[in-house]
Amino acid sequence: MAHSRFHDLNLSNATLIITDIVILSGIYFFASYYLSGIYSSAPPAFDLRTFAHLFCFTLPIQLTLLAVGLYNEKLRENFRGITLRITVAIVLAYLLTFTLTLLIPYLTLPGWTKPILYLFALLVLVTARYIAITNNYEQLGRRRVILLGHGNRAQLINTSMRRKADRVHFDLVGYIDIPGDLAIEETNLPRITLTQPLEDYVRQENIDEIVIAVDERRGTLPTDSLFKCKIQHILITDVIDFIERETGQIAVNHITPSFVIYNGHPSKNKLKAFLSWLFNSLIAMIILFVSWPLIIAAFIAIKIEDGLFSPVLYSQQRVGLQGRLFSIYKFRSMRVDAERNGAQMAAKVDARITRVGAVLRKYRIDELPQLFNVLRGDMCFVGPRPERPQFSDQFAQDIPFYAHRNDVKPGLTGWAQLKYPYGDGLEDAIEKLKFDLYYIKHRSLRLDLLILIRTSEIVLFGKGR
């Protein structure tokens, strides 16, 4: 049984993805074979062009389903909301495919086929998702887990994964007391009293994973039994690694300086840096080409609300790679005199935000001018959000390893923006740092693409900041 997973990918949503691919492929071949017979006596030819059409049909739908959050393991939506998201995904995929066929006419489907294909896709995907929900698909691959220890480190699971949705992949069977653990308040987690060797208990109770959460390891761990469990292919995980895997965050208060030594070093490879800039610049140009009507609309709306001579853009100093300062650009979403009393962090409910600004911020239109920062090389599309120097200095003094987030370029969006709601204080900065450090440790092109696609959900549904 595989226990590692690619960030949010696990057996339950991997099953959804594979099922959707099979469904979409079946719909396509049904349309190609049966519907073509209605309009032509010749059977369809299953050649290279057929499979190119299949790819052009299935891939955009898969991407848009991901983009609207339908493969998000912690999506909290009723069936009506899920139906709406599937509908939005199908519409977006239709538009994406239409644009693609304009660029590559070879991929154009017969006019009568396309609307039927997408209508079938909508109906069958909604039905399949209803069946999956009613059969508790999220329970697939659920693991039985026990804790070794019941002290402060074991409590990290309660503090990091309070909600039921946070524990969707495992069933915490209970804990085993280990000598030397610090006393804590009792929890509802059952205590396991061993009357037999640990390896026998694990085998009889079908335990899949043992999480090491002891406060004092020296001379307290049952190493012989753990070795025998390992031989039985039982996964043995440190509690910090367990939390990182299950939540997508780093437990900041429990990591050591070795984390900084072994993770997140900035690359000095000039070719890699150039290719990264080129990749980000190409995306910036594409988004600029698509979003220019929104840019013009934002310009006009700000002028109408605040007057012909009101400023449309504003810039602020932000902290970038290796602590270097740069000017970030945004559409102005607050009153002109918003900081007459000095710098202050924006709040979720902020009286300084204008009516137009509220709309711009909700759908992130205010951040479109930052495409210029990407083109200039100050920022990437994905990375920790850049902070103002005043607040960055304060957080660096109060939060361990906060400055480590400056080891990579800041981004327009990031892992923290996907995983954590809007926050404007020290505690929120600590929580977001946990996700930023996770991104720094695991950053890759695949993770960047995942974050970019899933950011679409935030933009489309006006979530987060």
TrEMBL record:
<keyword id="KW-0808">Transferase</keyword>
<keyword id="KW-1133">Transmembrane helix</keyword>
<dbReference type="GO" id="GO:0016780">
    <property type="term" value="F:phosphotransferase activity, for other substituted phosphate groups"/>
</dbReference>
<protein>
    <submittedName>
        <fullName>Sugar transferase</fullName>
    </submittedName>
</protein>
<feature type="transmembrane region" description="Helical">
    <location>
        <begin position="116"/>
        <end position="133"/>
    </location>
</feature>
<dbReference type="Pfam" id="PF02397">
    <property type="entry name" value="Bac_transf"/>
</dbReference>
<feature type="transmembrane region" description="Helical">
    <location>
        <begin position="277"/>
        <end position="302"/>
    </location>
</feature>
<keyword id="KW-0472">Membrane</keyword>
<feature type="transmembrane region" description="Helical">
    <location>
        <begin position="51"/>
        <end position="71"/>
    </location>
</feature>
<comment type="similarity">
    <text>Belongs to the bacterial sugar transferase family.</text>
</comment>
<dbReference type="InterPro" id="IPR017464">
    <property type="entry name" value="Sugar_tfrase_EpsB_2"/>
</dbReference>
<dbReference type="InterPro" id="IPR003362">
    <property type="entry name" value="Bact_transf"/>
</dbReference>
<feature type="transmembrane region" description="Helical">
    <location>
        <begin position="83"/>
        <end position="104"/>
    </location>
</feature>
<dbReference type="InterPro" id="IPR017475">
    <property type="entry name" value="EPS_sugar_tfrase"/>
</dbReference>
<keyword id="KW-0812">Transmembrane</keyword>
<feature type="transmembrane region" description="Helical">
    <location>
        <begin position="12"/>
        <end position="31"/>
    </location>
</feature>
<feature type="domain" description="Bacterial sugar transferase">
    <location>
        <begin position="278"/>
        <end position="460"/>
    </location>
</feature>
<dbReference type="GO" id="GO:0016020">
    <property type="term" value="C:membrane"/>
</dbReference>
